[in-house]
Design brief:
23 strands; 7-stranded parallel β-sheet; globular
């Protein structure tokens, strides 16, 4: 089918314990308007577009304890949707693992690994004031990528290890990027996988 599970112009719904696999579009999607949804305990595997997507303007959702694998595009995609909580998910084999093109979201306690053709966390566009905290971000092409006008995002207390690049801030704007574990205390080794002209890894 073109889509697995879709919520359209609704509020405060729960999508739980679903298996959304091998769809031609999104695995689980929230579109049009609404918000306040809980998307919890689902699997979304091998969907053509995002595993889970929250559409423009639909905020205040909880995306918790889902497993997303083998997505040729985003594992979890937050598109112009503010104030969502993304917690306890496992995202592997996506490109990127979690993409945030929105503001005031919390990405916490997720396993974001083996996204070898893309970033673990991709902070895009005019995204600002997002918190990326206490995640395991490992074995990706880039652990965390920040691009364009994204600014004032807090990326801290994560384990960011074993990536080709651990953190790249391509836009060169202010972020908080200290207090992460980079797999070593050797500052030369850390800086070799850290590309940021304005912020520090310390």
């Amino acid at each position: 089918t073109s889509r697995g599970v879709v919520l359209w112009a609704s509020y405060n719904d729960t999508v739980q314990s679903c298996d959304a696999a091998s769809n031609g579009g999104v695995g689980i999607g929230v579109f049009s308007s609404g918000g306040g949804h809980t998307i919890m305990g689902n699997t979304a595997n091998s969907n053509t577009t995002a595993g889970i997507q929250i559409g423009a303007g639909i905020g205040g959702n909880l995306v918790k304890n889902n497993t997303i694998t083998s997505s040729p595009n985003q594992g979890i995609y937050i598109l112009n949707a503010p104030a969502n909580t993304i917690v306890g998910n496992t995202v592997k084999g996506a490109r990127p693992g979690i993409e945030i093109a929105a503001s005031r979201n919390v990405i916490r306690n997720n396993l974001i690994a083996q996204n070898s053709a893309g970033s673990g966390v991709y902070i895009n566009g005019v995204a600002d004031t997002n918190a990326v905290e206490q995640n395991e971000i490992a074995g990706n092409e880039t652990g965390v990528m920040v691009i364009l006008q994204a600014r004032n995002n807090v990326i801290q207390k994560n384990n960011i290890t074993g990536n080709t690049w651990d953190l790249v801030n391509r836009g060169g704007l202010a972020q908080t990027t200290g207090r992460n574990w980079w797999g070593t205390a050797d500052e030369v080794a850390i800086s070799a996988k850290f590309s940021d002209t304005i912020n520090t890894f310390i």
